[in-house]
Amino acid sequence: MALSVWLSLALVCMMGAMSPGPSLAVVLKHTLSGGMKNGMLAALSHGIGVGLYAAASLLGLGALMAQFPTLYQILVYLGAAYLAYLGLKILLAKPSNNELQVQKSEVSASKALQDGFAIAFLNPKLAIFFLALFSLFIDPQNLTLSIGIIMCLTVFVIDTGWYLLVAVLTEVSKNRFGFTKQNPWLDKILGVVFIALAIRVVIGL
Fold first, then answer.
1. How far apart are CA 200 and CA 10, in angstroms?
2. CA separation (Å) from 125 to 60, 61, 143?
3. Of the candidates 2, 36, 9, the residue with the CA atom closest to the CA atom of residue 134
4. In this predicted model, what pLDDT tens digit does every residue of 156-196 receive, in sequence order?
5. Of all residues in the chain, what percent are helix, strand and coil, respectively (each to 5)?
6. Most buried one in 40, 75, 150, 167, CB count within 10 A?
7. Alpha-carbon Rg of the chain, whole angstroms?
8. Which DSSP state fits 139?
9. How far apart are CA 121 and CA 197, in angstroms?
10. How many angstroms separate the CA atoms of 186 and 192, rounded?
11. How far apart are CA 113 and CA 188, in angstroms?
12. How far apart are the first and last CA of the chain?
């Protein structure tokens, strides 16, 4: 793959990763509530999910989604339902006791991994996006394994790198402005954001 082609691909992937949406909300949520470590775990698992979609698109999943819109719609509705579930869970959560803080941190770490991956996996728009994106840069008849690996690694590294940066900057800002303790009002705002994102996903279908 020519360097100029790769740079163009990397630029588009970077713009896609930086666009605000459910993925950003998930990383922010886990960084604010569980710390930078949990935010990074969410970023890593999200990058894995996005990378898998990129690989699947090269294998024909994107074309399958376009050919069978019912399958696409089912995944979209599942993604919206998951967002609504996260929002309602935040809104209905009770303040935790200090004695349970360590246990909560351990649970939050596994939850961060789960949420980060689920937000990517339950977003079939990624398959369509990568199908359209890759078609601009490759000829299916000349696609080799090495080119496919380079493209998928590019997607994974850029997506993961961006959200790792988001987690770090959020943690720094949280400490700088004194948001080191759990803020119930901030939690409520995040819950409303998740529900609003779920509604937007359904309306945009």
1. 27
2. 14, 11, 23
3. 9
4. 999 999 999 999 999 988 777 665 555 566 667 878 888 88
5. 85, 0, 15
6. 167
7. 18
8. -
9. 16
10. 10
11. 22
12. 35
